[in-house]
Amino acid sequence: MIKESVLDVLMYLFDQNSETEQSLSSDQAALSAELEKAGFAKDEVERAFHWLEGLVDTSQRPKHFEPSMTTRAFAAKELSVIGSEHLSYILYLEHIGILNVELRELVIDRIMALGIDEIDLSHVKWVALMVLNNHYEDGFETEWFEEMILTDPKTEVQH
């Protein structure tokens, strides 16, 4: 469960920053101290910051995905970690226009970067929300994304 606590750190950061409208790009040392004071271990905090760096580092990603009628084939590891039901949920978010191809791939990448052997739907939703929040940080309102992602009546997520 130690790796799951990286997601706990990320969810804490997201909650705190959305309440205070503080940017996650704030002073990392100050945020690290705040997280440790909140009870998170230093190594968990460092892994969470590394995860966030991967979220914003676009240098290793294609600049633009062309719309395509092709079907995405998932790697065995992706199927094992995320599971077909949760991958279906990600594809559903793409189908209804919340995610585009690029954001879908980023959500999958960030889920895999958590290093968790098996993930549940609440984790998928949180990662999707963090990806969307980062993607639309230029003042675009993500509240309706948040409402839609976190309050699916079939899978109510409590945070």
Automatic annotation (TrEMBL):
It comes from the Bacteria. It holds the Pfam family DUF494. PANTHER family: PROTEIN SMG (PTHR38692:SF1). Belongs to the Smg family. This is Protein Smg homolog. The lineage of its organism: Bacteria, Pseudomonadati, Pseudomonadota, Gammaproteobacteria, Thiotrichales.
